[in-house]
Design a protein that fits this description.
Length: 55
């Protein structure tokens, strides 16, 4: 059991370290305004109109 937990802990730390060094991207879709916003490394890169099926 201890080996299983330690291997899980090691794997999660490796994933965390890898995600911190990689570029971070985030897509947000606002259905009220029918807009898509793309954030890259914390900055807005694109805001564009999208079709959401909501009027």
């Amino acid at each position: 059991m201890r080996d299983l937990l330690s291997s899980y802990w090691e794997g999660s730390r490796r994933e965390e370290a890898a995600s911190k060094t990689a570029n971070q991207g985030l897509i947000i879709i606002n259905k009220y305004y029918n807009k898509l916003a793309y954030f890259h490394n914390g900055y807005i890169e694109i805001v564009d109109s999208v079709a959401t099926g909501k009027t």
